[in-house]
Specification:
- 55% of the residues lie in helices and 5% in strands.
- The protein is mainly alpha-helical.
- Strands 1-3-2 form a 3-stranded antiparallel sheet.
- The chain starts with a strand and ends with a helix.
- InterPro entries: Citrate_synth-like_lrg_a-sub, Citrate_synth-like_sm_a-sub, Citrate_synthase, Citrate_synthase_sf, DNA-bd_dom_put_sf.
- Pathway: Carbohydrate metabolism; tricarboxylic acid cycle.
- This is citrate synthase (unknown stereospecificity).
Length: 432
């Protein structure tokens, strides 16, 4: 099993190596001695990091520093997502109820429209989202270097779609709703199909599947992807949503809002997590021992065990359960095999740390089962969350502008001291 060096373990805990060895001497964390020095079990370090995070409260000058222990820096009103009692609600509806039941058509298109229409429930027969300017966006994506990642492709698509939309600066609610639906559909249609692709009359999930996987797009797989899109449409004030709302507070148009959200989403602790989990599951699929694969993934991330431990859900991420149940009901051999691998990994993590799966684990299971690229999960995440970002932008447009511009508390050197030191230096130079 891959081990962490003392420096890596200390960095994960956010302490000096001297403090790390103090923990060792007190029996709080174990180490192994070897020819290259001390080595630490990454899962043990992660377990201790979680325990320490809950029990400490950093302070500054005797006062607790807001946000230093993971608590919110601010509270922002939202009428979109509610996380309470280990459940996620979207506009007052449990997110699981938004997913299409077996035999029903995909519902993501209807959910996106519903975010802007303010109706009670999106169960009306959905009309597929229609894009505009996707051909120009596709040409821009074709000009990117081979192997460009999901973030680069999506960001280029947003820029191209914005350039051709005359309504992008119209911030009236009805215009924002039209722009948002075109934007979400355009992100999908701008991506190059892997094989035969359905036309614009097909639901978004079906069009997206043809751009992520070369496997046949049967109804079960389409509904699985559709469920993932719905489960990821919004999640309260995630880092990317905060970035999107800050842009909207400055009256950025919806395309710029989505670009701001993408910048925060493309990060190791947010939208890119599923790629790390994808690599971990592939390792196990190719014969690596699950415990060793988990340790290696944890060591690579240096930010916890990817795919496990969503702090907002002490009892487990309901989105992960919903997507797992949808995949388990498929009767698909590939999905069943990927779920078995995830269960083996989950057993190791739960036994060693007590952490439960997040939506990122199940998103990676879906990309492995669908024989997709490692960053396909980030693409699904970004397309789904773009709708949520636009809904947050619409809310922000109705509030005081620039209200999300915080005031910094300066903690640097005293300007008077700097000027005094500079004057002394000049005087010393003149006296030479």
């Amino acid at each position: 099993m891959d081990r962490l060096t003392a420096a890596q373990a200390a960095a994960r805990l956010g302490v000096r190596t001297e403090t790390l060895y103090a923990y060792v001497s007190r029996g709080l964390i174990a180490r192994e001695r070897g020819s290259h020095g001390s080595a630490f079990d990454p899962l043990e370090v992660e377990r201790f990091a979680r325990t320490r995070r809950r029990s400490t409260s950093p302070s500054h000058g005797g006062a607790r520093v807001a946000g230093a222990d993971g608590s919110p820096l601010a509270v922002i009103d939202t009428d979109i997502a509610l996380i309470e009692d280990d459940e996620l609600w979207i506009r007052g509806v449990p997110v699981q109820e938004l997913i299409a039941a077996p035999g029903e058509p995909p519902q993501f298109d209807a959910v996106v429209r519903w975010l802007f229409e303010r109706t009670e429930h999106p169960r009306a027969a959905p009309h597929p989202l229609v894009s505009a300017g996707a051909e120009a966006a596709r040409r821009m994506l074709d000009a990117l270097p081979p192997g460009a990642g999901a973030f680069s492709r999506l960001l280029a698509a947003v820029a191209a779609l914005a350039a051709g939309d005359p309504e992008r600066y119209d911030l009236r609610p009805e215009a924002v709703g039209r722009v948002a639906t075109r934007l979400v559909a355009g992100l999908v249609d701008a991506l190059a199909p892997i094989g035969d692709a359905p036309g614009s009359e097909a639901p978004v999930a079906e069009r997206l599947w043809a751009r992520l996987s070369g496997l046949p797009a049967d109804s079960g797989r389409i509904r699985m992807l559709d469920a993932a899109l719905i489960l990821l449409v919004d999640h309260d004030m995630a880092a990317s949503t905060l970035a999107a709302r800050a842009a909207a507070s400055a009256r950025a148009h919806p395309y710029a809002v989505v670009a701001a959200g993408l910048g925060a989403l493309d990060s190791a602790l947010h939208g890119a997590v599923s790629a790390s989990v994808h690599a971990m599951l592939r390792d196990v699929q190719q014969g690596t021992d699950p415990a060793a694969a988990v340790a290696a993934a944890t060591r690579r991330s240096n930010a916890g065990i990817p795919g496990f431990g969503q702090p907002l859900y002490p009892g487990g991420d309901p989105r992960a359960r919903a997507l797992r149940d949808r995949m388990a009901a498929l009767g698909d051999a590939r999905a069943d095999a990927a779920l078995r691998i995830a269960a083996e990994v989950g057993d190791v993590v739960r036994e060693r740390t007590g952490l439960l799966p997040t939506i990122d684990l199940m998103l990676a299971v879906m990309t492995v089962a669908g024989d997709m690229a490692p960053d396909a999960g980030e693409t699904v995440f970004a397309i789904a969350r773009s709708a949520g970002w636009c809904a947050h932008a619409l809310d922000e447009y109705g509030r005081a502008p620039l209200r999300l511009r915080p005031i910094g508390r300066y903690v640097g050197p005293d300007p008077a001291d700097v000027q005094r030191a500079s004057s002394n230096a000049r005087y010393a130079e003149e006296m030479r």
